[in-house]
Specification:
mainly beta; single chain; Thrombin, subunit H; about 15% helix
């Protein structure tokens, strides 16, 4: 059963992120986004509850959001990497309008796809 409030849509973007207010920068890849969060595939795992700043590009526009690490996902065994990637689930309290527009357009595309009747 899905526990998320908002549907995730794919977004493939390089992310620069770090603890909010600190100068150290880490890198990862955003793989999906929702109205209240993003998932970053990265080996740099921060602790849940830490405040982070994340910078990435959406449709050619640079976006910066502030969020809180909601969860960390660790995949240590090399053979398990093909089944799931480790990274950070980031809760974003106020998503950037550019990202909201991107999500809306992706959801509309999905809604417009023809469905095949089941037999």
């Amino acid at each position: 059963m899905e526990r998320r409030r908002y549907k995730r849509v794919p977004l493939f973007a390089t992310a620069r992120f770090g603890k909010h207010g600190e100068h150290r920068v880490y890198f990862g890849n955003i793989v999906d986004v929702s109205y209240q969060g993003i998932f970053i595939v990265t080996n740099m795992l921060l602790k849940p509850g830490e405040k982070v700043s994340v910078e990435f590009n959406v449709n050619g526009s640079s976006v910066t959001v502030i969020g809180t690490v909601a969860r960390t996902k660790v995949v240590e065994h090399p053979t398990l990497v093909k089944y799931g990637k480790g990274g950070l689930g980031i809760f974003i309290e106020m998503m950037h309008p550019t990202v909201i527009d991107y999500i809306n357009s992706r959801l509309m595309e999905e809604y417009k796809k023809p469905t095949t009747p089941s037999l």
